[in-house]
């Protein structure tokens, strides 16, 4: 049978989920009438999955390791009670209120937060903070990592059961072409670029100095010969600031976007931040690596579009990335992966490793970094899946359904100069910093796929359809692949994996001629991901086509039919 693709997307993980896609935020009522809006905490215990809040179309604003934070009116609260969902009310007057999430694992942090406004712990190390008057970002004590609550609904989906099996290693072998790009990353350049930012004075967002730093970054990107550089303004508290967005447009898949980003604003204690906040590790280090990535990739045509983004007002609560990620989602941009570098230059141990924080949907991106680290750094990258690590610019991308990671030298933080006037270039470990930058550039290049002269171009259009033939005794499944002919191809290789983005294995023998292939080695209920390469007349192989994820029908056809209902079966044969 052949099923419409849109339906299949609803069955990932075996549960129909009608509100998995991010929806528009609930409009805040002008005057609360017939019920007020509350901020609630919904427990995600062993007995509660996020399937129920999703089915209720609850206005979830933050997903954490142990709970969801959501805005709920009286009707929502009644529906949650009816279904026996455990929740607590964090604040009864959520209409028009601004909230910050604040990291409170440091001893005394929660107490200092409570002396500055209203604070409710929602899980160990995380509190919601607000003030009855004024903006909470002005009141929150300096030194505590914070995140402004998302301005609209974030997508939620049932969590997949944690699998004990290690992710398959990416199949890509050491690529000498990418090694040559990575070898161009210059430790001297990195150090010089770090120093240019502290040289400008403070970069505390809201100051004119911070805006001058944005202009310096604009000029630095503009000097690299990219396709576009522009500012994007956004508001926070009583101020505005600008993200700097530079782009190298992809030749083959221009609408598919990879982002490497960091924040350029900085901070220090309240008494000094308006005049002195060098922020060398936090986060001139990440910014220098992003600039260096742009410099070494600028010369090479790429399959995918790469954006190099410098965010502002991260230290105020991720305001720059919050505005950027929400706008990208609003415009329907296909951001395939976000590499957020935040503090990659300080080493408190030898050898230092790099921690890569992801949520469940982004785990593949960390798996790729774990593989790329030793190859291009060399540096050991350690994957940590924890949706509660939200205090950097990757988090708003998670909130908008995009895959993203944060790479950081240590978390919990080990840099004693963090957010102090002593966070200077002299405290950085140049070798570790350069290794982190090279590993990041290597991963980005692998993802963006430099186009090699003399090789065929990557095939652009690949479609996959499932067919299943049932008799009384057996069911035969087959995935039919079709693609558009690539003019410089003499044949094609087909790669397949059951783990999207990772571990592709070639499934054909000799290159396939023609533009179709029937994969008869699939099993009903499996999830398959295909990619295609073109093989030239002399045997040179192209980059891979875009991944094409194909999910088979549920294992039991009967339950599948019950789930989607007879009215949806038209067109299925
Ligand atoms: Zn930072």
Question: What does this protein look like?
Answer:
It is a single chain. With 573 residues, this protein is an alpha+beta fold. It has three domains: 115 residues, Immunoglobulins (Immunoglobulin-like, Sandwich), CATH 2.60.40; 111 residues, no CATH class; 273 residues, Zn peptidases (Aminopeptidase, 3-Layer(aba) Sandwich). The chain contains 15 helices and 23 strands. The strands form five sheets. Strands 9-10-12-11-13-16-14-15 form an eight-stranded mixed sheet, with helices on both faces. The protein has a four-stranded antiparallel sheet with strand order 2-3-1-4, covered by helices on one side. Helix 6 packs across helix 14 and helix 7 crosses helix 9. The termini are close together. The relative contact order is 0.11. The N terminus and C terminus are likely disordered. The chain binds zinc ion (ZN).
Main pleated sheet: 8 strands, mixed
| CATH first level of the largest domain | Alpha Beta
Please, what is the average pLDDT?
87
Structural class: alpha+beta
Cα radius of gyration in angstroms: 25 Å
CATH level 3 topology of the largest domain: Aminopeptidase
Instruction: Count the DSSP helices.
Output: 15
Give the ligands present: zinc ion
Uncertain runs are: 1-34, 161-165, 554-573
Number of strands: 23
CATH architecture of the largest domain: 3-Layer(aba) Sandwich
Strand percentage lies at 25-35%
Q: CATH superfamily membership of the largest domain, which one?
A: Zn peptidases
